[in-house]
Amino acid sequence: YIIVPRHQICKKLKILHATFLFLLFTLLLALPPAWFMYWGNGHIIIPNFWVLFSFISGLTFIAVIAILMGQQINPGMYAQVFMVVTTFKILACLSFIVVFLLNSTVDKAVFAGNFIYIYFLNTAFEVYVLLRNLRNQNLK
Asked: What is the CA radius of gyration of the chain?
């Protein structure tokens, strides 16, 4: 048998746990727009909503995993890694918005509402997972 140190297992479990939480969160986040799109008022959802949803959700997933891995590699650099990843996420989202709006004709108010719904709830999830991780680290 190969003996793996306990801290190595804990590190992998943190990432797996964050991945599971992300998948659950993404499913719950997708339910209201799916309901509005297929059974409710479809005019409050932009036509390419799932492209926007996938992009921002993918960025959030990459950000959470990158920050957790950065914390595992060098815990002292946690704040710097968090700031770099968050800055990258904001700039990538702004670039995506520019490209998206230049290539499509959508109602700007509906787009703004859809973007705010996805971006801020994903950001809240990201902060929740990372603060929860820090809280667990401080309890040790």
From this structure: 18
Q: What is the C-alpha to C-alpha distance for residues 11 and 6, in angstroms, rounded to an integer? A: 9
How many whole angstroms separate alpha carbon 24 and alpha carbon 31? 11
Residue whose structure tokens are 């926007």:
52
Q: 3-state secondary structure string, 42-100? A: HHHCCCCHHHHHHHHHHHHHHHHHHHHHHHHHCHHHHHHHHHHHHHHHHHHHHHHHHHH
Task: Give the integer Cα–Cα distance in Å for 50 and 12.
Answer: 30
Query: pLDDT tens digits for 13-58?
Result: 778 888 898 999 999 999 999 998 888 776 888 888 999 999 999 9
What is the length of the chain?
Answer: 140
Could you identify the residue written with the tokens 């595992």?
72
pTM for the predicted model, two decimal places? 0.81
